[in-house]
Amino acid sequence: MSATAPAPHQPAKAADERLLTTSPLKKLLGRPELGSVVGAVAVFLFFAIIADSFLQANSIATVLYAASTIGIMAVPVALLMIGGEFDLSAGVMVTTSALMSSMFSYQMTANVWVGVGVSLLVTLAIGVFNGVMLIRTDPPSFIITLGTFLMLTGMNLGFTKLISGTVSTKSISDMEGFASAKDVFASTITIGGVDFKITIVWWLAMVAIATWILLRTRAGNWIFAVGGGEQAARAVGVPVGRTKIGLYMGVAFGAWVSGQHLLFNYDVVQSGEGVGNELIYIIAAVIGGCLITGGYGSAVGAAVGALIFGMTSKGIVYAEWNPDWFKFFLGAMLLLATLLNAWVRKRAEATK
Question: How much is the pTM?
Fold first, then answer.
């Protein structure tokens, strides 16, 4: 009986990736907001050195307020971008929300909370419209929401002049419910002798909720999957249509909150406001680490992007520079943040 030949040498099986441990450094490099955090620290130190008044408590409160007015919209816009889509109507939708609350309350002589509720329903309906048009037709979100942007811009001006006779709304400050609505959307909280706007609370709450959705829920997995590849996501059972409609409704909700702040902070609303702000929201999300192609980003990064925007816009004023240079610095930050985010991603992929 012949001896059995020894089996050829078999290479050891590769370890299951799910069982591999990841070092803290690799986890840090894998975070999409890392680049924006580094940028935020750099901007903060720069203006802290250049502008003597930048570090004053009241100045910090002003910076946070400026950041919050952008961040309330930048966070849901970031989620939408992670899902692979855009919304160019986001800026004028804020104005539409404010106009709807003001004109409905004034014309119906109702409690202003009725106008606030009607505005919420109308704004969410606009979000649903954008989402349904996207999933039921062929044009990309850029074209669809550009159309919505143009329609809302015309409607804001047309209806305001038709109802009010001017390009701005009538004052509703003497109506029932105005004071309580202002407490919710435009009040000031004093902490340690420093006044902070309540929009900062709204902003932080939206960051927390959006982060929880992205990292702790099934819907968050759907958002990343849809942004990473729509066809592949649909093949594994992801409800692509519902996910995208939900994302557009999220942007609409942010527009409603921002619109109510605009109304109850200033009492009257100019119908032409909001044009161009959609680009600022997108810039904040991109600075925060969101990819234009979708499937990558975070709500925290978008919040940091908004903070960079707030520090830059107010830091230039505190440094007593010509504010005409603001957009130059904003564009430079966008390019630098994009390059830094790309470098961080490559480093993260190289360490996997």
Answer: 0.88
